[in-house]
């Protein structure tokens, strides 16, 4: 008997369960199968800060959301169409993230009285009307999995653990995902442990067949492949893209990559990924603290390495003095800030983009440096290359801003040709027979990079003010002003060496410009597309360079009657734009540790236009 | 008045003909007249040629404090960092460029207070750097506050009623974090200082050298018992590996007392077999006991090499891992990396 297949343009699926239920893995595998099918997609993992919060409680719920579509999409979706909840806590935590009328697939076995209570429900939500208005499918996932894996020779506990593969199988059927991608992966992962492999395959197939044969599901869905530019694609998350971008910068510059870091969520993924690639000559050092990480990197920068330190907001606070030292030493160095919700420890696993002013101004004295930001997971790759290019060319520390959202989410990425990537020329200083002037400058105002071991270029650098040219210590009043202005002019001059800000204004009649930076790109694109579909004329522009701004930024923000700047902060870019260009830009703020939803921004766009 | 210090900074020394001059920058040292730092600087500049390492292959790294200016007076590559972080900067240099001779100059405030964390981690990692800690038991650059090595009861500008802080014992601290080379010397004993520098330079890994250094402005005479010629010959306990520990012109010795504690005793009243024979290559607990013979430099104290053992050097271990990875996986191929895992092609 074949069932009805309904075509959908886009679907949002959310997998939720206990931290130990393997939901991230399930989501990741579903994503791979979806990518291989050629859908466009965007994902968002959402997990608790605690490694294993008490099982069965709302605090311990870990979720993974994916939106996939037959056309271009830019966000993981505001609301889920389908929620797979492995226990009552997952239902309790995530029900409000499901759109009205959405599909709930619940692991019926887990809805025991005790679990229902642990989740904080006073009555059984399956019975008391909580789920009215949703399409509810109760599936005894645990017991079917146990039955399906009987005879394989594993214990009950291990067999129950395979229930996430049952869920994956069921959802794979619902959306017509290919099974081979998952089966091949299981073989790679568990091939050497026959029983575990057999159990996972049995559970996966049981889930798939359950959808196919039971009367429970009347239909499945089909989402056609999205049209894509020809090329070879892969799915990539922001953390991996950033790490690979740094490796690419090392390859394209010939400078060994030297990464010093202290573990911190969500930047640790960078340390993990880079430490796997020692065959690229990548040195990774887990330092004793954030300050040491910055100084170790700076020492390596002096020695001619592509020096990088990575962290999140709290670590930037600690590194501030060292970053200032790099500013006065004028050495190339990249400081990665994978932003998270603050202040203080804040919400370590939740996203925010509230470190822009910290990056811009978070050092004592006049201490300017360039700031580059990534806007999508895949864009982290190019942003890393760009940060390296600027750091090396201008002999300056560069702050590279990412955030929890793009670090953890993923999207399809057309893999670039290595030869097409920009090459970076370190141009180390060489002796020319004359006295060496460590603070002489080239046409970009960059000073020579003279590395220890080079005869004839022996010199000392340090945090005390330098004399122009010689680099000697100087407390001279006029010299300090000169050096302060030189350091500023060098950074400002980078504006001539970066692409102009591009405006997208299809009608050419927009009154409103939505200006963004960082990970809100996806939301802005989706919200503006909806507003245009409603007949509104809206222009967009997105900044990848936050300091200096592209040279045409002022011209653009002044060209529109209204400027709206959506940010996951209290209006930091808005403050910079208003101060710099004297335009009455409006800020749209959201600080919930979550990305801005397209629907929310769409309403704000309408509100601003109708004002 | 302009406060500019000139810097020629273009040494082109040949290793075989190096002299003190090649290591002396043309910047005029600006410590207070009579400061112990002058003696240390002169000894270091005079010693460096002996290593046969050219100035351009040598890096001095310092932090903040009077000792921090040391870097500018050496005609080598130099990095004058922020307060307390010199061991971290030096770690980056030494790992990135293992062929360089890397020296850290720090003080009791810089190295043991604000920078204590970096010091202990450099020592435990055994990075190939030589750390000279100038201990004057006072904050000199900030004009006279007590330091983490100042004695209890110390009256300073920030402790008008006497310090209630218990001081660090730098040697015991270094031994406690399993430093592989731990020594102490004094600023005005050129011969002893040079010999300790020699041993430190020969050591593979982190060498920790505490130098008792007189601050004649804010803490004058703190080490007189050991520095002063007349008193020193009675109170310096000189450590020589394999030799019985006797001092005070042979009148006193170190022996194992009750409960196994080391104690100072008249040699005449001690069984010659009971005198402790210094074992610099033994367990750190032996050196630790010697570090605790005195409560501070106002009692007879040991100078010399307390402890010297071999352990894998941090930077070398990193290089070995890089090499092993290349041998196992082949040199990195960026194109292959970008294609690893699931990919799909759109025609």
Q: Please, could you describe this protein's structure?
A:
The complex is a heterodimer of chains A (611) and B (347). By secondary structure, chain A is of the alpha/beta class. Chain A folds into three domains: 4-222, Pyruvate-ferredoxin Oxidoreductase, domain 3, CATH 3.40.920; 234-420, Rossmann fold; 503-610, 3-Layer(aba) Sandwich (Rossmann fold). Chain A contains 20 helices and 23 strands. A seven-stranded mixed β-sheet of chain A has the order 11-10-12-13-15-14-21, with helices on both faces. A six-stranded mixed β-sheet of chain A has the order 3-4-2-5-6-7, sandwiched between helices. In chain A, α14 links the parallel β14 (371-373) and β15 (397-403). In chain A, α9 crosses α10. The longest helix of chain A has 20 residues, at 194-213. Chain A starts with a strand and ends with a helix. With 347 residues, chain B is of the alpha/beta class. Chain B folds into two domains: 5-243 and 278-329, Thiamin diphosphate (ThDP)-binding fold, Pyr/PP domains (Rossmann fold, 3-Layer(aba) Sandwich), CATH 3.40.50.970; 247-275, no CATH class. Chain B has twelve helices and twelve strands. Chain B has helices spanning 36-51, 70-73, 86-96, 108-114, 116-125, 170-176, 190-202, 224-227, 229-235, 284-291, 314-329, 334-338; strands at residues 58-62, 77-80, 101-107, 130-135, 181-186, 207-212, 236-239, 246-247, 252-256, 262-266, 301-308, 343-346. In chain B, the strands form two sheets. An eight-stranded mixed β-sheet of chain B has the order 2-1-3-4-6-5-11-7, sandwiched between helices. In chain B, a hairpin with a 4-residue loop joins β8 and β9. In chain B, α4 (108-114) packs across α5 and α6 (170-176) runs antiparallel to α10. The longest helix of chain B has 16 residues, at 36-51. Chain B is globular, with a radius of gyration of 23 Å. The N and C termini of chain B lie far apart (73 Å). Chains A and B meet through α1, β9, α9, α11 and α12 of A and β2, α3, α5, α11 and α12 of B. β17 of chain A pairs parallel with β2 of chain B.
């Amino acid at each position: 008997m074949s069932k009805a297949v309904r075509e959908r343009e886009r679907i949002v699926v959310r997998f939720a369960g206990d931290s130990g239920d393997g939901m991230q893995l399930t989501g990741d595998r579903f994503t791979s199968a979806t990518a291989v099918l050629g859908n466009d997609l965007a994902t968002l993992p959402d997990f608790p800060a605690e490694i294993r919060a008490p099982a069965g409680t709302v605090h311990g719920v870990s979720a993974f959301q994916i939106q996939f579509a037959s056309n271009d999409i830019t966000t993981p979706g505001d609301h889920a169409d389908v929620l797979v909840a492995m226990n009552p806590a997952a239902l309790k935590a995530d029900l409000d993230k499901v759109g009205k009328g959405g599909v709930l697939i619940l692991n019926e076995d887990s809805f025991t009285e005790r679990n229902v209570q642990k989740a904080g429900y006073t009555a059984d939500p399956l019975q008391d009307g909580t789920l009215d208005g949703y399409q509810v499918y109760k599936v005894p996932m645990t017991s079917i999995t146990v039955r399906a894996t009987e005879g394989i020779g594993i214990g009950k506990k291990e067999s129950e653990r395979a229930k996430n593969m049952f869920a994956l199988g069921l959802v794979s059927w619902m959306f017509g995902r290919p099974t081979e991608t998952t089966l091949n992966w299981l073989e790679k992962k568990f091939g050497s442990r026959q029983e575990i492999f057999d159990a996972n395959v049995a559970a996966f197939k049981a889930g798939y067949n359950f959808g196919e044969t039971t009367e429970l599901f009347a239909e499945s869905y089909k989402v056609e492949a999205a049209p894509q530019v020809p090329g070879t694609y892969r799915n990539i998350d922001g953390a991996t893209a950033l790490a690979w971008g740094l490796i690419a910068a090392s390859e394209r510059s010939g400078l060994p990559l030297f990464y010093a870091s202290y573990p911190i969520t969500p930047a640790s993924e960078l340390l993990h990924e880079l430490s796997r690639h020692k065959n690229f000559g990548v040195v990774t050092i887990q330092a004793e603290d954030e300050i040491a990480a910055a100084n170790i990197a700076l020492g390596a920068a002096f020695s001619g390495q592509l020096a990088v330190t990575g962290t999140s907001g709290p670590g930037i606070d600690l590194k501030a003095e060292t970053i200032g030292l790099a500013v006065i030493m004028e050495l190339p160095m990249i400081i990665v800030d994978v932003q998270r919700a603050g202040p203080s420890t804040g919400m370590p696993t939740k996203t925010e983009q509230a470190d822009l002013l910290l990056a811009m101004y978070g050092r004592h004295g006049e201490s300017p440096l360039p700031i580059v930001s990534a806007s999508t997971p895949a864009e982290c790759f190019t942003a890393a290359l760009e940060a390296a290019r600027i750091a090396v060319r201008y002999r300056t520390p560069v702050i590279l801003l990412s955030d929890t959202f793009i670090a953890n989410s993923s999207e399809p990425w057309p893999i670039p040709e290595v030869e097409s990537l920009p090459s970076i020329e370190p141009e180390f200083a060489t002796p020319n027979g004359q006295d060496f002037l460590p603070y002489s400058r080239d046409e970009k105002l960059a000073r020579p990079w003279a590395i220890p071991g080079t005869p004839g270029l022996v010199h000392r650098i340090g945090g005390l003010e330098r004399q122009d040219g010689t680099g000697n210590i100087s407390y001279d009043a006029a010299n300090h002003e000169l050096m302060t202005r030189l350091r500023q002019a060098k950074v400002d001059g980078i504006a001539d060496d970066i692409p102009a800000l591009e405006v997208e204004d299809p009608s050419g009649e927009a009154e409103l410009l939505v200006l963004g930076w960082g990970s809100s790109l996806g939301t802005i694109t989706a919200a503006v597309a909806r507003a245009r579909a409603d007949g509104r004329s809206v222009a967009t522009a997105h900044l990848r360079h936050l300091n200096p701004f592209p040279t045409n930024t002022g011209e653009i923000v002044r060209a529109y009657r209204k400027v709206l700047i959506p940010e996951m902060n209290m209006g930091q870019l808005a403050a910079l734009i208003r101060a710099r260009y004297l335009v009455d830009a409006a800020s749209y703020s959201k600080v919930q540790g979550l990305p801005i939803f397209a629907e929310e921004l769409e309403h704000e766009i309408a509100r601003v236009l109708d004002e | 008045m302009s406060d500019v210090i000139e810097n020629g900074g273009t040494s082109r020394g040949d290793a075989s003909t190096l002299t003190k001059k090649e290591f002396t920058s043309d910047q005029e040292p600006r410590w207070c007249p009579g400061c112990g730092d002058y003696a240390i600087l002169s000894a270091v500049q005079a010693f460096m040629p002996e290593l046969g390492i050219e100035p351009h292959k040598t890096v001095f790294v310092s932090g903040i404090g009077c000792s921090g200016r040391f870097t500018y007076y050496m005609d080598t590559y130099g990095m004058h960092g922020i307060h307390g972080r010199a061991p971290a900067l030096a770690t980056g240099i030494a790992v990135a460029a293992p062929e360089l001779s890397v020296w850290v100059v720090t003080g009791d405030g810089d190295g043991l207070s604000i920078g204590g964390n970096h010091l202990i981690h450099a020592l435990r990692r055994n990075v190939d750097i030589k750390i000279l800690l100038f201990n004057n038991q006072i904050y000199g650059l900030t004009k006279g506050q007590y330091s983490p090595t100042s004695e209890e009861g110390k009256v300073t500008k920030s402790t008008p009623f006497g310090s209630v802080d218990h001081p660090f014992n730098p040697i015991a601290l270094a031994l406690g974090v399993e430093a592989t080379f731990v020594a102490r010397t004094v600023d005005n004993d050129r011969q002893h200082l040079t010999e300790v520098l020699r041993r430190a330079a020969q050591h593979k890994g982190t060498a920790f050298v505490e130098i008792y250094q007189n601050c004649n402005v804010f803490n004058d005479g703190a080490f007189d018992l050991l520095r002063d010629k007349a008193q020193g010959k009675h109170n310096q306990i000189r450590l020589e590996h394999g030799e019985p520990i006797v001092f005070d012109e042979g009148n006193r010795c170190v022996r194992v007392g009750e409960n196994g504690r080391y104690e100072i005793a008249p040699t005449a009243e001690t069984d010659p077999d009971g005198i402790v024979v210094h074992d610099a290559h033994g367990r750190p607990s032996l050196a630790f006991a010697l570090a605790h013979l005195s409560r501070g430099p106002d009692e007879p104290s040991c100078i010399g090499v307390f402890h010297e053992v071999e352990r894998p050097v941090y930077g070398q271990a990193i290089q070995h891992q890089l090499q092993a990875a290349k041998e196992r996986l082949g040199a990195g191929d960026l194109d292959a990396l970008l294609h690893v895992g699931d990919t799909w092609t759109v025609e």
